[in-house]
Structure prediction request, 271 residues.
Amino acid sequence: MSGASRALGRRRFLAAMAGSIALPAVFPRRVLAQATIENPIAPLDQLDPLVWVVTKGAPVRKGRVQLELPQLAENGNSVPMKVSVDSPMTAKEHVRGIHLFSERNPVRNMASFYLGPRAGRAEVVSRVRLAGSQHVVAIAELSDGSFWAGSAAVVVTLSACLDES
Amino acid sequence: MTARVQMPRAAKRGEVIEVRILIQHAMETGYRHDEVGHAIKRNVINAFSCRYNGVEVFRADLSSGIAANPYLQFYTVAEASGAFEFTWIDDEGKQEIERQPIVVSA
Prediction:
């Protein structure tokens, strides 16, 4: 009697173990597949803590943001950058902020610009530093709470100095 | 004078005006060393704001990812005559202010 119930207990235990091993083996693959299908802010990750600070987990869609950088920059110490967002800039519908992220810079959150309906035009021009060839991603936050992204790839011949120069 | 502001002196009400500012600042990244090998401390302008008659119309958080002598170009709608006030502060806590008047006609 006691031997049979012990065997049953072991069987149940083994079945439970098999289940717990099989489940995580299936789940991460599915999650990964979803993430690789459409990532509007590639090569960044929407789960990137720097991005999360801006979006608080809200989905980012591709489009409406034009990030203009030269395809080839000879000197990474000063690269002209222009970012504009397709928005009427009215009190009802405007851009709240534009956030610039770098793929390879040591400080990856390069800059954040905060605009409002009084800007009249959602465009900011500046000059950035780039530590090597990389993608730069701009994420815009609109007044309706949606997030849009645009990116640009730059080849940098002489990267911005990280050490002696 | 550590900054140069370029914007129209006069504008019509409702007109979108372009504001350009060039600030003289090394934007030291903190990754460089001097001749004797000591690390040069990071010192960048980390915050910039533009107020138009006391109302903030543009603000930016900057980092070492912005080139030395930072240049910023942005837009705002001319609403009333008055003054633009640009303020920025660096990592050492040095704050600077630049003002520019504007005349707005109806």
